[in-house]
Every structure is written in structure tokens, then in C-alpha cells.
Amino acid sequence: MLSHLKTLDLSHNKLVSDSLPLFIDMRSLTELNLSYNQLTMLPVCTDCKNLTHLLLGFNKINNMENDYFLTLTKLSLLNLKNNKISEVSSNVGDLINLAILDLSDNELTDVPCELSSLFHLKSLFLGGNPIKTVRNDILQDSKRIISHIKTSRLDYHCQNVDGGGMSSQESTSEINIDKYKLDRTKTLTLCKVINIPESVYMIAKEAQVEQADLSYNRLHVVNSKLFDITSIRELDLSHNLIQNLPPDLLNLRHLVYMNLENNKLETIDIDFNFGHLRELNLSSNKFQQIPKCIFHLDNLEILILNNNDIEEINQPEKLVKMQKLTVLDLSNNNIRKIPYELGLAQQLHHLNLVGNCFKYPRQDILQKGTPFLLSYLRDKLPST
Predict the structure, then answer these.
(1) What are the residues whose beta carbons fall under 8 Å from the beta carbon of 298, sequence distance 6 or more?
(2) Which residue range forms the structural domain that includes residue 257?
(3) In a designed cystine with 284, which of 63, 66, 307, 378 is the match (CB 3.0 to 4.6 A)?
(4) pTM recorded for the entire structure
(5) Could you read off the pLDDT of 125-138 as tens digits, one per residue?
(6) 197: CATH
(7) What is the DSSP letter of 20?
(8) Where are the beta strands (DSSP E) in the chain?
(9) 350-352 and 327-329: which strand pairing?
(10) Distance (Å, rounded) from C-alpha 261 to C-alpha 286?
């Protein structure tokens, strides 16, 4: 029977590591919550290969074994808040799908360099650690600390890209593509490019590329040839100058991840018919409301909309109906009022609303975590 279990909540008990059961033969498990216990070690869950959410906050864990994450490659949320961790596992980079990592209130003395391998990381919490190498105001801002890590990574990345990276001064005709490597890795990576020749897209199409990273360029318009590569499952167009999304984008019907962070987008004028999309990053653009097309993404799990110009949470009842949405980041916008209906979105594991204009809920409510916040909002709903 346990082999079919998908969610297991053992939080708020007095469990200790020595008596904790081994989570074996639980291959269907996607969510494991062991928060608020007395664990000193990470739980044994190497068989839980479909695990996406692991909640271990408020324990006494003091060590992260180096090979612990080798089989947990589907993990998207890892909460280790308020433990005794002083070092991060060297194999944390194996968490290729990790989007949210909470290591706040531990005993870290430096920003772990291992985190630079987490290419999909969107929310990182390191506050409350005795870190002296980075200013405290940066540590308290998830976006800024990730940017700090990415900047360090980018210096290396742009010198070693597999697809033939080049500086913005070089001619695009000088791009050299290693066809063999492209065919083997299924990954196209180019940075610091103003224009990308059509021949690059043609070669990538022949190789049936599944990951396309065109971040940190100066692209104003995306060449339609990119959307002929229908095998793409992960698309990163972040840190460009894109103002509009073309209808041809819909050709990428297999997308599971799309990053449009830090562009010039104000609206999305196309229907997002991406039935497989699980993660969408629209942070640091110019949206004034949540794009309505997002409400139709039935399989979306992670929605990042921080650092925009959003003034209200429009149509909260539609957010409530997005039953697979577990992460919603609306921090650092201009939201003046939080609709109480949002409290009905009990599927949310992480709701970030800090850095907005509203007075209520107060900051002390926000700091108590998502479950408490959602309960607070529900309690404010008028009784029927």
C-alpha cells in the first residue's frame, strides 16, 4: 500500500533520527514533510525517486551527506530552515530541478559555492546564518543573492559554453557549433550574442535539442527559427530585451520549463497552450497584473512573478483552481491589497508576498510561513 502513497506528513511530532523509519519502496511519494521534529540527520529516502517536495525545517540536522541527493533529481523544493547545518553537500548540484531552497537560520559561514550548479534555482533563503562574506541586505533578498551566485557562475559559463559562446563584440558568423556534442548533450547554450544566425537553429533542430539556454544576450526579437525546434523542453530567454512573445512560441508544445526573467515584457498577447509546462519565471519584467493566459496552465507548479509592477492579485479564484500550483512568488511588486480568497489556495507550499505596498497582513504574519498566512486569509473570509 505504501508504494502508492504520494503525500506523507509527519510534521509536528517528536521524531528522532534513530527511530525514524526508512522510506523504502515508496516510489510514488512526491511530498514528504518532516518539519518540526528532532531529527539530527537527513532521512533515508533514496528510493523516493519521484520526490519533488522535501520539508525538513525546524529540526537539528547538522550534516548533509555528500551522496545524499544522487537519486533525488526531481526535487523542486527543499526546506532545511532552522537546523544546525554548517556545510552544504558537494553533490547538491545533482538537484537539477531544484527551484526553491531554504537554508535560513542555520550555521553557514559563507555562501556555498556548490549552489552555483543549481541552474533552475529561483528562490534561495540564507538569512539568519553567520555569513560575513556577503552584506546582510543581500542575504535577506532572495533575488539579489541568486544574482550574486549567477554572476560568479556567468563569468565561467561564458568562457566555456558548449555551443560556442562569444562576446558581444564578436561577429555572429564566428559561432562554431560542435555538432557531435550538441547531438550528445541535447543542449544549446549561447551567451553575449546580439544576433544568432539561422544556421545555428537549423543545426539544433537536426540534433533534436531539448534544452536551449539563450540567456544573457541582447536579443530584442526571438528568431522564429528557434520555434521550429519542437523538441525543446526547457527554454531560457532570461536577461534579454524581449518586448513581445510571438505566436510561433506555441510550437514548443513539449515545454516543461520556461524562463523569461529580466526582459521588457508588459503583456502576453498569445494563449499559453502549454499543457506540460511546470515552471514559469516572469520575474523582473513590467507586468501590471498577472497575465490571464497563465490561469489556463493546468500543470503549472511554480510561478515566479517577483519584481514587476503588479498592483493587484487579479482573479484570485482562478489561482485557487490551479490545483498543481505549489509555489507563487509575487514579492517586490506594488500590490496594495491581498484578497482573502487567496487563502483558499491550500495547494500552495510557498507564497511570497514581501516587498509590496499592502499594510495587511502585517510582516509578522508573513514571517510565520505560508500555511499560517493562508489560514489567516481564510479566517478573514465572510462566513456563508
Answers:
(1) 275, 322, 323, 324
(2) 179-380
(3) 307
(4) 0.62
(5) 998 899 877 777 67
(6) 3.80.10.10
(7) P
(8) 7-9, 31-33, 53-55, 77-79, 100-102, 123-125, 187-189, 211-213, 234-236, 257-259, 279-281, 302-304, 327-329, 350-352
(9) parallel
(10) 11
